[in-house]
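Final report, closing paragraph on structural work. Over the funding period we assembled a curated collection of sequence-structure pairs, and we close with a single example.
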Amino acid sequence: MSQVSYASGQEDNDDDDLLALLGEVGGADRNLEGIIAAIYDIGCFVGAIVAFLTAERFGRKGSIKWGSWIMVVGTILQTTATEKVQMIISRIITGVGNGINTVNVPIWQAESFKSSNRGAMLVIQSALIALGFPVSTFMGLASSQAEPSSFSWRWPIAFQGAFLVIILAVLPFLPESPRWLVAHDRVEEATEVFARLEGATATVTDEKIIRERDMVVASVRHEREVGEISWAEVFTEGKNRNLSRVLLGAGPYMFNQWSGINCLAYYLPITFERNIGLSSQLALIISGVLGIQYFLVSWLPYFFIEKAGRRKVMMLSAAGCSFCMVMISIMLKVNTLVVSSHRLNRSTSS
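Its predicted structure, as stored:
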């Protein structure tokens, strides 16, 4: 998951590097800069839809494998880009692969973890996602020393290939989702996976393993008996409160994006440079330090998430984030006015 966040942030960490890239592939332009940054998210959205349509067919491991190979192709095309059209298309391709992986990894984990430690394991996943941001920021800082060489922007893009190589090398040795195996009538394989996940001493004949397998088999059988629900049922309440479940699952993610957090996640160095007036180097250093702090703090829920529960922790975190976003907006507004005033004075005096 560190690869996911590295790939998301590596293009947007250094404004000067991005402008250098644009200068080589067709001219530095602010609108084109925004298109290249945003088109990646369009690719991720398409990848998520592709994952929705194909994940059940290819399995969790198979989907992640294809997503990673798609990212390899996109990474190669980005690294070798000489035209802006190639850069835009390659960004979309990389985003599609990342979207496929972003959807399948949490499902794979949720279907493989025990309910007793699922929360803690998902905290580790989030922490690894957070790790990718400071890695990409400091990578941008290091490669920026090579300016005006194209190495300053080609190397950070190419480096995400290292994560992809690790994923593709390790993936064959990891177990498939036992629930997916059961759903495709591969119960014996699912039993072996349950034993493997339990530990080295567990065997397929252990009572605990058989009980876990039978619970999943019963659940899958019940889903088949009920049949697939229609889209109308998904967005209506009914006795199963389907609409409430959809809103509870999707709502926090939607509001999280609408909060403006991507302005900080994607453009934090650029915000420091343009709105506050910091140098490019200092902006990257501060962004990297904040990324490290983000990574370290994201581990805290690991120690209390199972005892405190999800709801209370989420509500407290949302309240804290709301307060911070308000304060950031106010301070950015003040500093933007000050920086603009100083720039106007300098231009007038010159």
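The mean pLDDT is 81. Residues 277 and 342 are 10 Å apart (CA to CA). We thank the funder for supporting this effort.
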